[in-house]
Amino acid sequence: MDWIWIISGVVLTFAGLIGCIVPLIPGPPLSYLALVLLLLTDRALFSSDFMALWLIITFLVTVLDYYVPVWGAKKFGGTTKGIWGATLGLIAGIFLIPPFGIIVGPFIGAYLGEIIGGNQHENALKAGFGTFIGFLAGTVMKLAVSSTLTFYFFKALLF
């Protein structure tokens, strides 16, 4: 039975890492769930304090991931159209120009979203940059948490 939990945990760790980049896939929660599954085996000896701490961190990063891009957009004069543009730009960028689309797509999408929303070129450029910075900050936070959880998962699994 342990192998089912372990294989499911491995799948969740990789899905968690992918989810840090691909929108609509909750990266850190999936990575945390992998640790929970590993607790069902005889491989992991995570303390309840450790699990509680990482649950809080996972929750905070997941909430901040929704707030940081909005903050970046508002700080640089952006609108919700820019945020939607950044998200759509990321999705298009992943498929159209991988791997650079992950970086270029959100910026172009945010810029176009602001232009469609009626902003002038300079304002749209500034807002697109702010949205991109916020999006990038959220992605880095998620990757840091999911990478750390993945490290603990494989450390417990292999050592």
Q: Could you please describe the fold and organization of this structure?
A:
The protein is 82% helix and 0% strand. With 159 residues, it is mostly helical. It has one domain. The longest helix has 38 residues, at 121-158. The radius of gyration is 18 Å and the shape is elongated.
- The count of helical stretches stands at 6
**Total beta-strand segments:** 0
Number of domains: 1
Fraction of residues in helix: over 70%
CA radius of gyration: 18 Å
What would you call the shape? elongated
Q: What is the secondary structure topology, with strand pairs?
A:
Blueprint: H1 2-19, H2 27-39, H3 48-75, H4 80-96, H5 101-116, H6 121-158
Helix pairs in contact: 1-2, 1-6, 2-3, 2-6, 3-6, 4-5, 5-6
Note the main attributes of this structure.
159 residues; mainly alpha
Structure described in brief:
The chain is mainly alpha-helical and 159 residues long. It contains 6 helices and no strands.
